[in-house]
C-alpha cells in the first residue's frame, strides 16, 4: 500500500469517527477513539481497494485545490484552472465514495458537501504533515503515538 493510500484511509477512518461525535470532546479522548478505530478496522489497510494511481491523483489534486483556495486574490487568468480543479476534486470524491460503497465501507455514507470540504482540507493537511515529519519512515508504534499530534486530531474541535 502506498503512502497516499494510507493517508486517504487514515483520514477516512478519522473522519468517520468525527461524524459519530454528538458534541465536541477533548483531543485526548478523540485520539483514544481514533486509535481504537484504527485497531478495530485494520482490515481496511490490508484491503487494496484504493489503487496507487487514483490515490496519487487524489492527493495531488487536493493539494492544487487547497493552494488555489489559500490565495487571497485569485487572478482572472487562474479562474478557469481553479474551476477545473474544483470540479475534478468533486468527481474524485464521488469516485472515492463509489469505491468505498463497492467495497462495503460505510465511511463516506451521509457526507454532506460541507463534510467533503472538511475531509478535503484535513486530508491535504495530513498529507503535508506526513511529508514534513517523514511519518512513513517511522515504526508502527511511533506512528500511533505521533497521531496524537497530527492535524487530524483537531477535527474533534469543529
Can you tell me about this structure?
The structure is a single chain. The protein is 70% helix and 0% strand. The chain is built from seven helices and no strands. It has helices at residues 3-20, 27-40, 43-46, 52-70, 76-102, 113-133, 140-146. The two termini are 30 Å apart.
List the SSEs and their pairings.
Blueprint: H1 3-20, H2 27-40, H3 43-46, H4 52-70, H5 76-102, H6 113-133, H7 140-146
Keywords:
7 helices, 0% strand, 70% helix, mainly alpha, 158 residues
Short account of what is shown:
The protein has 158 residues and is mainly alpha-helical.
Helicity range? 55-70%
Number of helices: 7
Q: What fraction strand?
A: under 5%
Assign an overall shape. globular
**Low-confidence regions:** none
End-to-end separation in angstroms reads 30 Å
- Please count the beta strands (DSSP E, at least 2 residues each): 0
Question: What's the main sheet like?
Answer: none
Order of helices and strands: HHHHHHH
Class computed from helices, strands and strand pairing: mainly alpha
Could you tell me the radius of gyration in angstroms?
16 Å
Q: Please, what is the average pLDDT?
A: 91
Amino acid at each position: 500500500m502506498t503512502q497516499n493510500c494510507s493517508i486517504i484511509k487514515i483520514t477516512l477512518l478519522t473522519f468517520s469517527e468525527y461524524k459519530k461525535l454528538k458534541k465536541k470532546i477533548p483531543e485526548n479522548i478523540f485520539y483514544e477513539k481514533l486509535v481504537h478505530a484504527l485497531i478495530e478496522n485494520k482490515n481496511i489497510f490490508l484491503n487494496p481497494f484504493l489503487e496507487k494511481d487514483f490515490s496519487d491523483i487524489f492527493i495531488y489534486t487536493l493539494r492544487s485545490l487547497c493552494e488555489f483556495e489559500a490565495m487571497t486574490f485569485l487572478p482572472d487568468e487562474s479562474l478557469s484552472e481553479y474551476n477545473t480543479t474544483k470540479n475534478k476534486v468533486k468527481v474524485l470524491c464521488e469516485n472515492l465514495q463509489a469505491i468505498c460503497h463497492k467495497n462495503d465501507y460505510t465511511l463516506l455514507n451521509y457526507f454532506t458537501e460541507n463534510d467533503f470540504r472538511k475531509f478535503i482540507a484535513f486530508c491535504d493537511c495530513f498529507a503535508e504533515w506526513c511529508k514534513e515529519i517523514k511519518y512513513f519512515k517511522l515504526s508502527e508504534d511511533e506512528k500511533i503515538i505521533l497521531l496524537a499530534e497530527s492535524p487530524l486530531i483537531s477535527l474533534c474541535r469543529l
